[in-house]
Design goal:
Elements lengths: L10 E4 L7 H7 L4 E6 L3 H4 L2 H11 L3 E5 L8 H14 L3 E6 L1 H15 L20 E5 L11 E6 L6 E6 L7 E4 L9 H19 L7 H23 L4 H15 L18 H13 L3 H16 L4 H12 L6 H18 L6 H5 L5 H11 L15 H11 L1
Parallel strand pairs: 1-8, 2-3, 2-4, 4-5, 5-8
Antiparallel strand pairs: 6-7
Helix pairs in contact: 4-5, 6-7, 6-8, 6-10, 7-8, 7-11, 9-10, 9-14, 10-12, 10-15, 11-12, 14-15
The chain binds 5,6-dihydroxy-NADP and zinc ion.
5,6-dihydroxy-NADP (NZQ) binds next to helix 2, helix 5, strand 6 and helix 6.
Length: about 400
């Protein structure tokens, strides 16, 4: 097992009607003037925003709410919200929504605590030394931002649009309210994309340079099996509380770091994350749903890199699906085939053509590889390090 350091201090309050504990949690983490961030319309339409506002008002907590965050959230919106939060004098940022809303709330917290900086500076290498506390009321099981140390934004104000994440301890939410019933209004496509993303947050960590990581492997394989079991049930029956609650808990555990402890790739960081980088370039250029971009490239990535450690892919197939093939390569192939069947059962695309609805042309492959490599300026991955030509080859296979 490689050395690791693990600290993930988010207080999780899980279960039915837990959103009524929001005001108490806000107070516990020092909030007296709360700036609430939400999305397009789902949280308004369901009455959730009104329930949260009542809960805060009844407990004497000053608040200001602002909506309009879109999926693949934009820097321009985060800047607008940051100005409003500074003017309001916010001392805690509350996200009511999914990954896009939570990541925007994190950005607003960083921007509000550092009014002398433009918040994109922190996405461009300026070290973050302070922020405001962020709390979350989660409405979709997917990105895991409620427990992760990451925040991903799309910069729509640059000539070449870029979608980029940062990892910092300041991205950890102080608390996460998780009521699975709040996710029952989700469209099936979003439930499927969410389950795929949850699977991927463990896959990205599982396929790393792993030696003797037995407990972490068992946790990861258990997580895979649980998402594979309950994901399709949730898609088919969003009112199934057991499935929605399993999925919600999987989402947080998958991205809190615990399914990859001790796994370090060649680049020395936890996990691989190449599929995420390949997928984020697709989202940057086509505004595609995050989870769907991952299923479109995953199998191609696997086949491109699997010779790096074929035994790892065989272990995945045997432990997750019970594949009995004695030959490692045959087992590995069967694991990929069954995972694609799982993605299909979630209603997710298995190729770029299925994702984008057209045959991807050579110019598009070049544009995707340019975006993913930041104009030939970076490599991605750790299990196997991939340069521009590798990225293009994988997009070609995923066509
Ligand atoms: O905007 P509204 O109207 O709320 O609709 C949203 C949105 O259209 C809808 N939705 C959410 N909860 C709902 C609901 N509709 C009905 N009922 C509900 N209860 O779902 C749509 C998608 O929402 P979004 O927040 O975009 O979903 P998700 O949680 O999948 O977040 C995706 C974003 O998170 C980033 C992704 O790149 C993407 O930008 N990620 C963030 C990570 C992190 N911070 O750790 C890690 C991930 O790998 C990911 O990159
Ligand atoms: Zn993801």
């Amino acid at each position: 097992m490689n050395n690791f350091r693990y600290y993930a201090p988010t207080e999780i309050v899980f279960g039915k009607e837990t959103e009524l504990q929001t005001a108490a949690l806000v107070k516990k983490y020092g909030g007296s003037r709360v700036f609430i961030v939400y999305g397009g319309q789902s949280a308004k339409k369901s009455g959730l925003i009104d329930r949260i506002l009542n809960n805060l008002n009844e407990n004497g907590i000053e608040n200001m709410a602002m909506g309009g965050v879109v999926p693949n959230p934009l820097v321009s919106k985060a800047r607008e919200m940051t100005s409003a939060a500074i003017q309001f004098g916010a001392d805690l940022i509350l996200a009511v929504g999914g990954g896009s809303v939570i990541d925007t709330a994190k950005a607003v917290a960083h921007g509000t605590a550092n009014p002398d900086h433009d918040l994109w500076e922190f996405w461009s290498g300026t070290p973050l030394t302070k922020s405001l506390p962020v709390g979350t009321v989660l409405t979709i099981s997917a990105a895991g931002s409620e427990t992760s140390d990451s925040a991903v934004l799309t910069n729509d104000t640059l000539e070449d649009v870029v979608k980029k994440g940062i990892n910092t301890p300041f991205n950890r939410c102080k608390f996460a309210v998780m009521n699975p019933e709040l996710t029952m209004t989700l469209p099936k496509y979003q439930i499927g994309a969410g389950a795929a993303d949850i699977f991927m947050h463990t896959s990205e960590r599982y396929f790393g340079e792993v030696t003797g990581n037995h407990l972490t492997d068992e946790i990861a394989e258990g997580l895979f099996r649980t998402v594979i079991r309950f994901g399709p049930i949730a898609v088919n029956d969003p009112h199934n509380y057991e499935a929605m609650s399993e999925l919600m808990w999987c989402g947080s555990v998958s991205h809190v770091g615990i399914t990859g402890l001790g796994s370090k790739g060649n680049a020395g960081r936890e996990g691989d994350w190449a599929c995420h980088q390949l997928g984020m370039a697709v989202s940057a250029l086509y505004d595609s749903t995050h989870g769907a971009t991952l299923t479109a490239v995953w199998a191609s990535w696997c086949r491109y890199v699997m010779d790096t450690d074929i035994r790892r892919f065989a272990q995945f197939a045997r432990k997750v699906y019970g594949v009995e093939e004695a030959d490692d390569r045959c087992a590995a192939e069967e694991g990929i085939r069954r995972t694609n069947a799982f993605f299909a059962s979630l209603g997710m695309p298995l190729s770029l053509r299925e994702l984008l609805g057209h045959e991807v042309q050579e110019e598009e492959l070049i544009a995707l590889s340019e975006t993913c490599s930041w104009g030939h300026k970076r490599t991605i991955g750790a299990f196997r390090i991939l340069d521009y030509e590798d990225m293009k080859a994988i997009y070609q296979m995923a066509k």
